[in-house]
Amino acid sequence: MGPSIPRGTDVPFAAGREWLAGDHHIHSEFSVGYEAPPAGTTEPPKPVLGADGRYSIPLNAWMARQHGLRWMVATDHGGPNHSKLNYEQAYPALLKARDEVPEVVQFYGMEFDTPGADHSSIIVPKSDAERTTLRDIESRFSKREPYPSDVSWDTEPKMLEALTFMRSITMPPVVIAHHPSRSATGFGMYGLDRPAEFRNWNDTAPTVAIGMEGAPGHQASAINKDGSLDSAGARGGYSRSPTLGGFDQMTAKVGGLWDSLLGEGRRWWITSTSDSHVNWRDGGSDFWPGEYSKTYVRAQHTHADILDGLRGGRIFVTTGDLIKELDVVAVAASGARAQAEIGGELSLPAGGDVRVTIRFRDPDTTNHHGDRPTVARVDLIIGEVTGPVSDRSADKNPSTRVVQRFTATDWQRRGEVVTVTYLLRNVSSSSYIRVRGTNTTELEPLPDQRGENPWSDLWFYSNPIFITVPKR
């Protein structure tokens, strides 16, 4: 099935590619607890299935399908000898899930206990070697794997060693940082994940370490089992420094860390996930995969093309099913009329104009909360690309700004499809553009208060298009 949004002849899309919703951060019963070993023995602790993640991998896949997902990744995190558990028990369960729910493309992966940092997804390409590939990575580099524990495994050099190993694999995996500011103690006061680390990861393995969660999971933290709100619940589990509109501070702040990385020209993409362990209806803090957050990848419905879409940044993210499709197309307004889409690059002579067309599907259907949210505003954001920074801890790009805000008076609607066009005049330096939108009236996403209803505060974000202009 091809794309459903009407498009002009100036919009090139690969045959068979469409926007496929997915989730790359999902836990099962193989995210275990551990039973302490008998006193005085050297035996490793015994894993206890279902002590952290609750559900089976086939059930997660079934729920993902029920909530509109077309792809997912099984990402259980580790502990002592967890690589053996993954190899012997989790992988056969994944094969069962693939057989029972073939409508959902399912990847083998894990939530990596990242050396020197917090957590991250490892997404392994589907192949006959996927089982041993993940075992080799986890057994050699997951910081919680050894028993007794070894502090030398929890260092940034160990992570760079891991990335060097991963990039050497014939079919290398993808690594995406999880909840990057959950351990932050304030705005710009980062915890386990630091700007310099992300730069070092990306420099070491630019097609492996490709990005971070723009919006973390655990977005149901303020919802009680009966559907009422818990006044103490913090979205995403961000108890010390809150999310903004449900998004991590590294993404949500215009001119912040994400823009600083993009301003170097880095292909550093954002995603959005459930981090599903236990659903809120069962007393947990999570939505089912696809119930609230979705990461859309433009791809054919295959393992290979979905992973290619993630590496290539053909991604947008949304919460609450605010939108279901998003196309951003940048076209040179004169000359060869070159063009680029989300994740792509447009080459432009200095001083050229760029016509930006934004098309999105604002669905006239209820989301999984029974609401019919509608887009109130769309922002076009631009920032300059100036190359590598001298300060590896830099987290600001002062050139980044909202160049235009669009509301219903600015766009054309045909059924569910909304289109708006804007002309960027006299683009004189290399830049990038990205798009976000919301159902709120907030000009910038505000810090999320404890007890906030996540369904009332919805946003979508595109990944960037780069505009390359030769230096004069």
End-to-end C-alpha gap: 45 Å
Q: How many β strands by DSSP?
A: 22
The outline comes out as globular
Mean pLDDT: 95
Q: Specify the CATH class.
A: Alpha Beta
> Structural class, from helix and strand content?
alpha+beta
* Count of separate structural domains: 1
Protein name: Phosphoesterase
What is the fold's blueprint, element by element?
Layout: E1 18-26, E2 33-35, E3 46-48, H1 57-66, E4 71-77, H2 82-100, E5 105-113, E6 119-124, H3 130-141, H4 156-168, E7 174-177, H5 195-204, E8 209-215, H6 249-252, H7 257-263, E9 269-272, E10 293-299, H8 303-311, E11 315-319, E12 325-332, E13 339-340, E14 345-347, E15 352-361, E16 377-384, E17 401-406, E18 412-414, E19 417-427, E20 431-438, E21 459-462, E22 465-468
Parallel strand pairs: 1-4, 4-5, 7-8, 8-9, 14-22
Antiparallel strand pairs: 1-10, 2-3, 5-6, 6-7, 10-11, 11-21, 12-13, 12-15, 15-19, 16-17, 16-20, 18-19, 20-21, 20-22
Helix pairs in contact: 1-2, 2-3, 4-5
